[in-house]
Amino acid sequence: MSFKQVFFGHKYNGNRIRQPLLSPRHFMPHTATSNIGQKITTIVMLTSTIVLLMSLAASVYIQGTTFQDSMVDKMSTMARIIGDNSKEALALRKNYLAERIINSLELEPSIQLAYLFDRENKVTAQYRNKSESSLAQELKNSPFKIERISEARDSEKMKHFLDLRHLTIYSPVFHEGDYIGCVYLQMSQNLIIRNLLLFAVAALAMLAVTLGVAYLLTTRLKRLITHPLHQLVDRMNEVSSEQNYCCQKMPIINSDIVEIKTLLGGFCHMLKQIEKREKSLQQYSQGLETQVRERTKDLQQTNDELHVTIQELDDAKKAAQEASAAKSRFLANMSHEIRTPMIGVLGMAEQLMSRDLDDQDAELVKTIYSSGESLQAILNDLLDISKIEAGKLELDLHQFTPIETLDQAVELLADNAFKKGLELTTVTHTAVPSTLTGDAGRLRQIILNLLSNAIKFTGDGHIVVDMNWLPTNTTSGNLIVSVKDSGIGLDDAAKNNIFTAFTQADSSTSRKYGGTGLGLTIVKQLVGLMDGDISVRDNEDHGSIFTVTIPFKSIAISPVEPHATTVTTRCAIVASENQQLQHMLREHLEASGISVALCDNAKLAQNKMDKKSLPLDLLLLDSTLPGGAISLLKSLPQDLRPKVIFLGPRSQMFSHEEMSQLGIDTFLPKPVQTTALYQAIAPNTQTAHIKPETKTPAPQRSNNHRILLAEDNDVNQRLVQLILRPLDYQLTVVSNGQQAVEACEKEEFSLILMDCQMPLMDGYEAAQHIRQQVNTPIIALTAHAGEEDVQRCRDAGMIDYLCKPYRQIQLLDMLEKHLKKQVHR
User: Fold this and answer.
1) CA 73, 77, 80, 86: dihedral to nearest 10 degrees?
2) Using alpha carbons only, how large is the chain's radius of gyration in Å?
3) pTM above the 0.85 mark?
4) Contact 721/727 with Cβ under 8 angstroms?
């Protein structure tokens, strides 16, 4: 290892240490081009030259100024003498005397020109030194200025002026205070310049001698400084080449300069430090090698453990995925196996309910049907929570009408609420847009679960479903749906766990009311999937309020358009003790330009109608009005009778004859739907039921319609036969997909009902074979309710599907839908 390696950067195992001990940039900011002797000589000589030149310049300037001042004094004295001698000649105008006086300047060779002026500034006498200048030169370069005579006279002082070539004197002559003339003297600057040049030459000679002496002294000084440094450099080169850092080989340097001795001591100390550092580096390198080997061994061991952990995690992930897939397959198979017999239970119960039974038998059939629906709801909840946990639940975004979605959801559970004696009210506000973009199906499921939960835990009282809109900008906002009940309520501990799967308020609640505890969990997950929020709080009276806030994009800001009317004085009375219903009806009536009066009993309504100054156009009468709604109807006069809109549950719906006898124009089923309300309050609306509960019209009966049923379950075969028997369809039944394909080859059918799970050949394969032969509509009958199952049916060539267990009305609607298309073709 060389001294340069140690001094400028230690080298270890062929790799340069990142931070050297000493770097060249610490000493030399740039590359050296001269030695210290040259620099000392240059500095000393340059300094001496500058100092001497400055001294020379100062001396020349001082000498020139002094000489010039002496010449000015000399000429001023001469001008004053001539002026004093010329007073008599000027006063008596003796020009010859003036000439003799001024010609006395011949004794001063430096005078070039002289004038003696009288008081009118006319030349009385003049003198010109012919040896100094010619007349032509004087006329050409004369510095004489006539106005300067006036300046000297006015100032009463002698004036002198200098230029590059001349020195001029203007001396006014006064006699007893009166101005009698002026003396002008002109001298050349050549004498001054010659004297300065001689002085400069002498100074330059002195400068050269001084610089020579300085150079000799510098040479001596250079030896005193550079010789010890050269010895030190030689020792440094020796250390660098031999890599010997011992201070004992330092040369003996005799120098009286303190700095040199300090530098020598510092260099020796540096060698000791380098030698010490070298030993430390060697020890450190040995330890570092040992440490690197140990760390490499530990790292390899850790890496092996990490590979094992990654493999275990990968195996665990695969196992979890397989378990999740197995769980999904199990749930799908369980869904299929449960839904298949469920169609027999619900279908046969529905067939019995359509027949004339005694009260006891009808009650038993209803119990069987409601139990089957409860089992189906539990199955649907299990499938939904499984999809949510697996992350397979996706939103189906499309345009929909939020108020219709609310009305459809509430209508499904309205009978359950009214059978328990509950007052169910829907409140929709005019701010709700008519069209939103989102998943209407999941919104409906959220409302159904919240409403079903409210009906389950409310023994008596009321339930209010409220929908409102809070815009955030012109094209989006938050849809707010709240379900308020007067049920058992929740304590603080229950509120914290109410959205946890399989959890109810307490175990006694589960035993008393039943259920799996999945409904609110599904709501929580669906609301989160839709980027919304759900909260629960206590009702002011009794019970709970669940509030859901979900963001949507709005297509139109206005709600269901009210029917325009040209009558501006329409009046209406809303007679109901339900305050929420009162406020909802008043909001929509006033939005249609109708003035509204509210009454909470029959007597108050009668009084308002008697006192009404304007004719009454509408009377909205609630069936639960205290004092009797029917009694109020009977007391109305026939001649001034308003249009009567009766509000009541579907179970209390009147026939057309009863409505005519009571004077009811329109029956609105409760809970009141917004669209039905606007239809009812429109002018010239005929007497009718708004959305009455009537049987779905049967498909067009025709012996020409031949239907093929491919179903392997005997109970399901029997159920379809019972449903279609009154319609006189020609029904052909087969038990597997192969038989269905063979039947289509032999006969022509108007429609095919195809079960997807059958022996020998399933419905998917059978549909593909049939689609290659004919274009007959194929409707899938499947117990698999997933979106991927529906898509698989469509890919196989099926145009529609029914999910088991299906209701009779659903099957009939499906037949009507597709058989009508066959007729139109």
Assistant:
1) -140
2) 62
3) no
4) no
